[in-house]
Structure prediction request, 692 residues.
Amino acid sequence: MQKTKSSPFPWLVLRTQVLSARLDRRVPKVLLAIGMVTLAAMVWSVGQGEYPVPPLDVVRTVLGLPTATSDYGFIVNTLRLPRTLVAWGVGMALAIAGTITQGMSRNPIAAPSIIGVNAGASLAAVSLIVVFPGVPIAFLPFAAFMGALTVAVLIYLLAWNGGTSPVRLILVGVGFSLVAGALTNLMVTFGNIYDVSQALVWLIGSVYGRSWAQVLAFAPWLIVFGLFSLVLSRELNALQMGDDLARSLGSRLEWQRGLLSFSAVALAGSAVATAGGIGFVGLMAPHIARQLVGPSHEGLLPTAALTGGMVVVVADLIGRLLFAPIELPCGIITAVVGAPYFLYLLIRDRK
Amino acid sequence: MERVENRVFIQSRTTLLTTGYVVGVCLLLTCLLASVALGVADIAPLDVYRALVSPDGSTEHLIIRTVRLPRSITALLVGSAVAVAGAIMQGLTRNPLADPGILGINSGAALAVVISVFLFDAASLDVYAGFALVGAAIAAVTVYGLGSLGRGGLTPLNLTIAGAALTALVSSLTTGILILSQRTLEEIRFWLAGSVAGRDIELVIQVIPYLLGGLILGLALGKQLTTLSLGDSVAKGLGQKTVWIKVLAAISVVLLAGGSVAIAGPIGFIGLIDPLFVRIWTGAAYRWNLPYSALCGAILLLLADIVARLVIQPQELPVGLVMPLLGAPLFIYLIRSRVRR
Prediction:
């Protein structure tokens, strides 16, 4: 591996035998800074709660070093750490899916929910909570993922009419979201009130009470498809310039678009299955990252991923601090922060 | 020669559209009659007529005059109002997927009503109506204001982005309140689904001025909307004061959609789909599209309401949820067959 660093150029080039990447010079510093903030927020978040744990003891407990009280081990490692890790991972997955969707559709306000992933997952999860309250909660992520996948595949099949078309895909997605939304609402309207309350928390997105089982179920998806997307990030640069230009640059268009869509669906679907429909992360993180490191996707994708992880970890922390001991789901916080950020983007672009 | 042919074409088209409208009105009256006659207690059409003309105080006549008729009238008014509001929004934003929801009207009304229940223990449809109207108006003004702050002023894209962002924000706040207070959820969830059942005639009469005002204003704007839908610069080039048209159109949408959400709760689907269907028949000329939208919207909501009360008797479904279940398959079919690109 060789690193070229000649100062007039704002690029950092990494070359190995198999892969090479050209990064914006700001990328390493930005990644480091975001990583530090995320880590600090995670330590705070794990220490925060009905039984507070001092930050230093949090770190010692996680690293397995001896601490003042032996209770810390259970509280930190079993109860609180998996929750924070889920928040981080889900944020990263949503952000990568959002970056891919925006890059592919060349639409800065595209989000993974366009493909109908959220609608399908929501319908499946709410049905499980409201119609079959006896089913153990551990099945929820599986059901939600199957729902997301089924709807995504159905939309793709129905939009196929001798070839795909972005417009038809989006419109069929809208139709499906409407049907799934109506069925979900039907259950919210007629279901048992306690189940419905629970379902609403899930719909808005929350990482409450997530355990190691969920972390382990979700991690493979994030790692496999996250790395896969990183490898493909170079193709996004070509795709973003338009179909014709991408083709003349040697891009195998339909094939690459298919692969990218597939990993976006897998990432968003598994994230929604794990933590519910946390909104605005997939939309917001790519924009923040673009402001930090510019539009080239090799650097943008990891930056957006870390930004998304940070946003959800911080949102979860705020949701627990704001009205403590009452807990707000982190999906509400991301929406309350995300919507004004979006409006700010709208007004800023005026100049 | 060419001119003459053109005129003949336009004349025959006008005749066709006028005839179609008359047929549509007959269909609407049939639906209205069916809506009054059908239900858990079946009542013969002749009895319906007698109940309206010379009520004799029997139970059946009482049912018709106090329950069925107000409900049917509500469905008719709300259906046409929401459809026209949707058509105007689609013209205004040049976005075939626009509906009054884009101005944040439904979500604003929902948040206002949820707040009224959460903070003030409001518990009657009249109080909901007041709050809904205020919430709808505030949301629409906010979206317009924010949209005009973007680059290039009040472009369709700015309006859509501002509307989508505000709608997301407001609906998460609504969900947040519903999660915090189960009492509010219990109280309001049926209203939130959108329904025309159990509305008494007093409430309908209170809202009628808003709906009629909005309808007249909207229909009067038909020609200007056709011009505006060609694009801002074209409309300006043709001498239109686009800002005024946009403001007037928005007032009409707020009156129509705000009035509807005040009586019936958020009923979303008609505003999206009805103008799209109507377009296939009338083309893009809003002079025809708007009246047809009103007619078809009323027919659609009346039919959906009949299905909503008959499908699992004696339970009723909220018509706001029946609409998309019936209509979306049709929507998807249309997209499959008509969207080529």
In short: Chain B has one domain: 2-338. Residues 2-37 of chain B form the longest helix (36 residues).
